[in-house]
Amino acid sequence: MDYLPENATTSVGTVLCCQCGIPITPNLSNMCVNCIRTHVDITEGIPKQCVIYFCRKCERYLQPPSNWIAAQLESKELLAICLKKLKELNRVTLIDAGFIWTEPHSQRIKLKLTIQKEIINNAVLQQVFVVEYTVNNQICSDCQRIEAKDFWRALVQIRQRTQHKKTFYYLEQLLLKHNMHQNTVNIKPIHGGLDFYFAGKQEGRKLVDFLLLVVPCRYQTAQQLISMDIHNNIANYKTTFSVEIVPVCKDNVVCLTKKLAHSLGNISQICVVIRVTKSIHLIDPFTLQIAEVSSTVFWREPFESLCNPNQLTEYMVMEIDVVLPRDQPKVTPVSNKHTLVEVYVARTADLGKNDQQYYCRTHLGHTLKTGDLVLGLHLATSNVNNNILNEMNPDKIPDVILVKKVYNRSRRNRRRNWKLRHVFNNPVESTSDGAEYTEFLEDLEEDDAYRQNINIFKDSTKTPVDLDDLDVEDESLPQISLQEMLDDLTLVDPTVGEGAKMLE
User: Fold this and answer.
1) Is pLDDT of 298 > 90?
2) Which segments of 184-302 does DSSP mark as H helices, in order?
3) Is the per-residue pLDDT at 123 higher than 80?
């Protein structure tokens, strides 16, 4: 027996192609690849051009026969819609499918497909081809009803009986963050609140359930019969949800009932609202005791604000002393973010006219120093129409209750390098609304817990402030760090349709 040497190589025999005669590696068909492709086309029967329909109002694509699916360009949802349009694709094996880049405004979508199919004598042929889709605009049935007339099946009316809109500004940001406004047919701002229109009852119910989780409120439901088929027992109704938000905002001075103050740990009846989120957060300015009032507790023992934010008086801090822990009342729970101090203040309107000063205790010791300006409620001379306050012992009613520190607004606007998004084009339409919105932005800067549920974006139009030119007062201004800001990215072309436009 002869053995091959170790460095010997084996050669594979070749045969001639039965069509063109070139030497090829033997295969079951005895033909080269080019000859096989000329005789067999595995893409036969698969359309190379198709048409898909797109609704510019709601940005959805039609999946026959009547389903409209929301899909972004080059997404897996759009890929599935395009592949379902190809007939005879189930007779081949799909290996790969991907998008070929096209201009967004070209109304063309191209797919590059790789398929395999078994041909002559169990030989498998792989082929790559391109399918071009033409995007035609067509209004879906839902948008047709909306365009035909003011069509809606559910209405959510949100109301708050206050003269300030801070709660609505906060609610707007929550709706944007959780995309609760996308399924709305229309949104109408009216005096005292907002109206959200929906095409179905379930969408309206979803918004009401969301409001119950983020703001203290209550709601009532009413239905109106539109039409009825007595033979099939089918009825069409229009449903209205009336949502009422508690009439209390941030930085309001409130007066609690004795029963409610006792249930909250014997807190003082006169408190300051430091935050309104899912519940009302109160602080006792005399002891730093804090409490939370849920919507259920509020509607059982309701209370109102003693004044509007526009009725607060501006004071100047003349003298300030920190209250030592041994001199503070023993109460729980106590806020760790605030400092209890005793201050003497004078109204800025009286400076240069008289030297009258007022003594009070306040929870703003962590931000106040001598010479600062602060807003407060002057209970000694104010005419407050509140039954609970009138029933209190006059000895327990302080002369002045300080609410918040006043910063230089022009400097704060100059340093503000962030912005918020809005549902409407012009969120502020008057001078008073502009001042209220600016106060809302200032509240976000001052309270980190208040802004933790809000998306804050970098403002590319603001240039960085030169830190060398800032004085000591500018350094004390509350700010939002860059770590809390998001990049303002536009993922959808705003010229595609009105529904794709996020108003800023």
Assistant:
1) yes
2) 201-214, 258-263, 295-300
3) no
Ramachandran quadrant class, 403 (left: phi over 0; alpha: psi -120 to 50; beta: rest): alpha
Residues 6+ apart with CB under 8 A from 300: none
Handedness of CA 15, 20, 22, 27 (dihedral sign): negative
Closest to 333 in 3D by CA, of 289, 364, 287: 289
Q: Which DSSP category does 325 fall into?
A: G
Q: How far apart are CA 377 and CA 8, in angstroms?
A: 103
| 379 SS3 class | coil
Which residue in 361, 392, 341 sits closest to 286, CA to CA?
Answer: 361
d(CA 159, CA 177): 21
Decide the pairing of beta strands 234-245 and 217-229.
antiparallel
CA distance from start to end of the chain: 88
Handedness of CA 296, 297, 300, 302 (dihedral sign): negative
Residue-wise pLDDT for 233-268, tens only, equals 888 889 999 999 999 988 899 999 999 999 999 999
What is the C-alpha separation between 398 and 378, in angstroms, rounded?
9
pLDDT at 497: 38
Q: Is the dihedral of CA 373, 379, 381, 384 positive or negative?
A: positive
Distance between CA atoms of residues 341 and 334, nearest Å: 14
CA neighbours within 13 Å on the CB side: how many for 12? 7
**What are the φ and ψ backbone dihedral angles of 382, each rounded to 5 degrees?**
-80, 150
Nearest to 423 by CA among 158, 171, 159, 59: 171
Alpha carbon 134 to its chain's center: 34
Note the helical H segments in 41-128.
76-84
* pTM recorded for the entire structure: 0.69
